[in-house]
Amino acid sequence: MKFINLDATNAYDKAIKSCAKDNKTIVCGTDEDRSYIEEALQDSLGHKEIIKASTAINAKKWLVSQQEALQNEIDASTVIGSWPGESTAKPGFTLASDIMTGAPIEDLIGAKIKTDRNWKVPAYFNFGGWNNCPAAEIQCAIWKHWQQEYGAKIVGVSNDVIEAYVSNPPSTEEEAMALAWQHYAYCNDIVDQGVETVAKLASVLINHDCWYFWWD
After folding, report:
1. Please, which residues have CB within 8 angstroms of residue 169's CB and are 6 or more apart in sequence?
2. Which residues contact 23 (CB under 8 A, 6 or more apart)?
3. What is the pLDDT of residue 45?
4. Contact at 8 Å (CB) between 137 and 122?
C-alpha cells in the first residue's frame, strides 16, 4: 500500500473507476487519518495472512448471529421503527470534505493498493478489531459477501470510517430492511448514534449507491 495525494473534487470518481482495476485508489481523509492508519499497520499480521483467515469465515452466518444477539438485547419496537418511505435526502461520501464546514480537504490523502479483489481492501489497512468494530478478517469476509450480493466496493477508508460504492442496491422495502439489519449487525453505531432506527437506515439504502459506516 502506498499513500498518495488526491484532488478532493474528483477523488471518489477516481476511486470508483479504479474498482475494476488491479491498482485501486482508496480515499483516506486527512494526514491525521493517515497517522492512525499507519499506527494500525504496525500491529498487522500482514494482508496475506488476514485474507487467508477471512476465507474460513461464513459472512452470512456471522451476520445472522450478530443480528440475533442484538435482537435479544434491544427494545425491538424502538430500534426497528416504522417505514418512512424511500428517503429523498440520501447522504454522499464524506472523507474528501471537512466534517464541520463541508469544504473540500485541500491536502486530501489517499492510498494505492494493488489487489485483484476489492473485498480484500480492509486487510491492507488492518482495519478493525477495536470496540465493536469487526476484526480485519471478518471485514474481508463480509465485504466479499456484499460485493457478490450488491456490487458493493470499498472506495473510502479512514481510521474509523468505511465507505463503499454500490452498483446493485436494494430496490424494495423488504430488501432494504433485510440489508439494514445486516448493516446494523455489522456497525451498531450507524443506528444507535446515527439514524436511530433500522427503518430509517433502510430508507436511505434503497436505490442508493453510497454506503457509510463509522465506529466510535
Report:
1. 150, 205, 206, 207, 208, 209
2. 112, 113, 114
3. 82
4. no
50-75 pLDDT, tens digit per residue, is 999 999 999 999 999 999 998 888 88
The residues that bridge with 214 in the sheet, in sequence order, are: 161
What residue has cell string 427503518?
199
Rounded Cα distance between 51 and 53, Å, is 5
Distance CA 75, CA 49 (A): 39
Hey, what's the cell of 137? 478478517
Crossing angle (nearest 10°) for helices 173-186 and 59-73: 80
Q: Name, in order, each residue with C-beta under 8 angstroms of 176's C-beta and a sequence gap of 6 or more.
A: 170, 202, 203, 205, 206
Say how far apart CA 128 and CA 166 lie, in whole Å. Answer: 21
Q: Contact 153/123 with Cβ under 8 angstroms? A: no
d(CA 69, CA 209): 29
Average model confidence (pLDDT) across the chain: 95
Q: What 3-state class would DSSP assign to 156?
A: strand
Q: Match 450507524 to its residue by C-alpha cell.
A: 190
Residue 214, phi then psi, degrees to nearest 5: -140, 135
* Of 187, 179, 74, 184, residue with least CA distance to 132: 187
Nearest C-alpha neighbor of 124 from the set 110, 108, 107: 110
Give 93's contacts (C-beta < 8 A, 6+ positions apart): 12, 27, 155, 156, 163, 210, 212
